[in-house]
Amino acid sequence: MADSALHDIPSVYEPSLFGTYSKKIGMWLFLLSDSLTFGALLYAYSYGRISTANWPTPFHSESIVNATIMTAFLLTSSLTMVLAVRASVDHNAKAQTLWLLATMACGAGFIILHGREWSNLIAEGLTLPMFPKVPGHEAASEFVNVSRTVPQFASTFFTLTGMHMLHVTLGVIYLGVVALRRKFIPILLVLWLVAWLATPAYSPFHYGAHVLLIAAIVCGIILWLKPKVYDSSDVEVAGLYWHFVDLVWMFIFPLVYLMSAKIL
Amino acid sequence: MEPDQIAIAERVAEQHRHHKKALFFWVWGALLVMTAIEVYLTYQNMEPVKMLTILMGLSLIKAALIIGFFMHLKYEVSRMKWLTMCSVVACLILMTIFFFPDARRIIELGVK
Q1: How much is the ipTM here?
Q2: Domains and CATH numbers, chain A
Q3: From CA B72, how far away is CA A164, in angstroms rounded?
Q4: Per-residue model confidence as pLDDT tens for chain A (264 residues)
C-alpha cells in the first residue's frame, strides 16, 4: 500500500549538491582516497631517502632519458584523453574511439618503457628478495651491493613505481573497455598470453602478466552482467582516472628519478 | 541513468563544448616545457634541498594545470572545488605533521 503510494508520486529530485552527476562525484571520491595511497608511498620514499646514509643515485642518463620519454607519453596521453572526451560530447563516436585508442597506445608505450627500465635495473642487480633469481645475476651486479646495504631503496622504488605501473595498466584496460566494449576481452586475453609467454620465468612480469587475465575475467563478467553503450559521461569519468594517473607521475618522476640521477 | 542525472550530464557536456581545443594544446605544451626544465635543472649540480624545492614547485604547478584544465575542476562549482581540494590537502598536511618532525630530527642529528 505504502509502496504503491510512493510509486504514484511523480519524480521530484533535489538539485545535485556538487553541480554534477553521481558517477563523476564517485570517481572524484575514489581518486581522493587513491591520492592518499600514493601520498603515503611518496612520503615513505622521501622518509627513507632522508634517513638513510649512502642513498644510491642509480639512474644514468639513459634512465633519465627513458623516464623523460615516459613522462612525455603520459602527458600526450592526457591530451588525447581530453580530445576523446571532447569527441564524446560532440557525439562523434569514431573520433572518440580513435582518441581513446591513441590514449591507450601512449599508456602502453609508457608501460613497455617502464618494464624495460625495471628489467635493466634487475639485470644490474637491483632486486627484491621476493623476485626470482636472475641467472648470472652475481656476475652482472652493479647494484648487488645497493640491494644488500640499502634495501630501503629497492623496496620503496619497486613499490612506488610498481603501484603506479599497475594503475596505468588498469587505466589502459578501463579505456579499452570503454572504447571497444566486448571486443576488447579477446584482445586482452591475447595480450595476457603474449606477455606471459614472451617474458622469461625469472622476470617479475612473467607473473605480473596474470593481472591481464584477472582483468579479462572481471571485465567479461561486468560486460556480461551490464552490457551498455558507454556515453560521454562514462568517457569523462574514465578520463578523470587517466588524468589522475598522469598527475601522480608528475611527483614520482622528479622525486624518484631526477633526485636520484647519477651525475658524472 | 536517472533522468536528473542525464540532464546534469548533458549540461556538463555543454560546458565541455564551450572550451576551445587550443587551450588544451597550450596546457600540454606548458607541461612538456616544465618537464624539460626539470630535466635541465637535474644536471646543474644544484644543492639538493634547493633543487628539491624547485622540482616540487614545478610539480605542484603541473598538478594544478592537470587538475584544473584536464580534469575540468576549474569549471566545476565552488562547492566541488573546495571540498575535494581542501579534504585532500588536509590529509596530506596531517601526513606532513607526522612525517616532518621526525625527518627534521634525523637531518639535525645527521645521518651516520
Answers
A1: 0.87
A2: 37-260 (1.20.120.80)
A3: 22
A4: 444 444 444 455 666 777 788 889 999 999 999 999 999 999 989 888 877 778 888 888 899 999 999 999 999 999 999 999 999 998 999 999 999 999 999 999 999 999 999 988 888 888 787 777 777 666 556 677 777 778 888 899 999 999 999 999 999 999 999 999 999 999 999 999 999 999 988 888 998 899 999 999 999 999 999 888 888 899 999 999 999 999 999 999 999 999 988 776
Neighbouring-strand partners of residue A261 = A59
CA–CA dist B81, B58 (Å, integer): 21
Q: How far is the alpha carbon of B83 from chain A, nearest alpha carbon, in Å?
A: 9
Which residues of chain B lie closer than 8 angstroms to A64, CB-CB? 39, 42
Domain definitions of chain B by residue range: 1-75, 77-112
CA distance A18 to B72: 14
Q: Chain A to chain B, count of Cβ pairs less than 8 Å apart?
A: 158
**Residue A55, C-alpha cell as written in the block:** 642513498
